[in-house]
Specification:
mainly alpha
Amino acid sequence: METWRIIATSLFGVGGLVMVLVAMAQVRDRKHSQHADVVKAGLIGLVVVAVITVSIALWLPSVVAWALVAATAMAVFFLTMMD
């Protein structure tokens, strides 16, 4: 496996996990949300992150992979820095 794939996969995986945690926190903060809603949001997010992570590791071209990493990094930055 190429080095760039390992780095891109790792960066996207970390950013994706942060995004899943942010999504779960947003679901938890909604009025009338239940524990099952938070768990469901987490599972859906983890499945999406896992599919994209495997795609980056195995077959996505470098431009698409790095675009996904950059988009995830920007989303994590803006969502975690908001008040």
